[in-house]
């Protein structure tokens, strides 16, 4: 089967900026109509739309934007987290951000859900998009966000016995002693076993 036969022609059709913007606004309208109490607000910046949603509705909203024929956001490109320490305490310290793309309509949107500082938890989207698996693990590892019902929620970058979350804004730049007990190699190739602080390197 050739490439053109295996990929629907509509996926190969370039979309104009106007078509993309219209589809983004259509997405906002459909979400607000379907989830009037959960699609809270939206904003646009440089051609991309962010929709703030209630965290408890994230799974149903994700399924809706993925499966609705007029939307079809089939691709979860990334899951990130923002720490709004001392900036946005009313809605929650953390915001989970899902970057979605529609191959058919050629546009991107972001879903954003705020979580509290104490016990930040949200349902996993692995049942909706398999790509969420490692992306959610990274957010858990770096920020300490717990994704309920994740099939394998454990550290992915940090050591498994680590108790800190290094991308939180209250985490010190020099760490909390984790890097002071490891041997290091000097420029001339010598291995030094004694510990030292990162500032002394």
UniProtKB/TrEMBL annotation:
Membrane topology: Peripheral membrane protein
Name listed for the protein in its UniProt record: NADH-quinone oxidoreductase subunit C
Gene Ontology annotations for the cellular component aspect, listed alphabetically: plasma membrane
Record InterPro entries: NADH_DH_suC, NADH_quin_OxRdtase_su_C/D-like, NADH_UbQ_OxRdtase_30kDa_su, NADH_UbQ_OxRdtase_CS
Superkingdom to which the source organism belongs: Bacteria
EC number: 7.1.1.-
Keyword check for DNA-binding: no
């Amino acid at each position: 089967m050739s490439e053109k036969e295996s990929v629907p022609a509509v996926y190969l059709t370039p979309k104009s900026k106007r078509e993309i913007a219209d589809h983004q606004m259509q997405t906002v309208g459909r979400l607000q109509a379907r989830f009037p109490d959960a699609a809270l607000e939206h904003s646009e910046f440089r051609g991309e739309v962010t929709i703030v949603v209630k965290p408890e509705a994230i799974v149903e909203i994700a399924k809706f934007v993925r499966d609705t024929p007029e939307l079809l956001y089939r691709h979860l490109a990334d899951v990130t987290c923002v720490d709004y320490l001392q900036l946005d305490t009313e809605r929650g310290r953390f915001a989970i951000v899902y970057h979605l793309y529609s191959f058919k309509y050629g546009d991107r949107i972001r879903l954003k859900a705020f979580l509290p500082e104490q016990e930040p938890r949200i349902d996993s989207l692995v049942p909706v998009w398999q790509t969420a698996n490692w992306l959610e693990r990274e957010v858990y590892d770096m920020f300490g966000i717990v994704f309920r019902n994740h099939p394998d929620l454990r550290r992915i970058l940090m050591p498994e016995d680590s108790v800190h979350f290094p991308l939180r804004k209250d985490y010190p730049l020099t760490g909390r002693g984790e890097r002071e007990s490891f041997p290091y190699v000097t420029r001339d190739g010598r291995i030094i076993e004694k510990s030292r602080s990162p500032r002394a390197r």
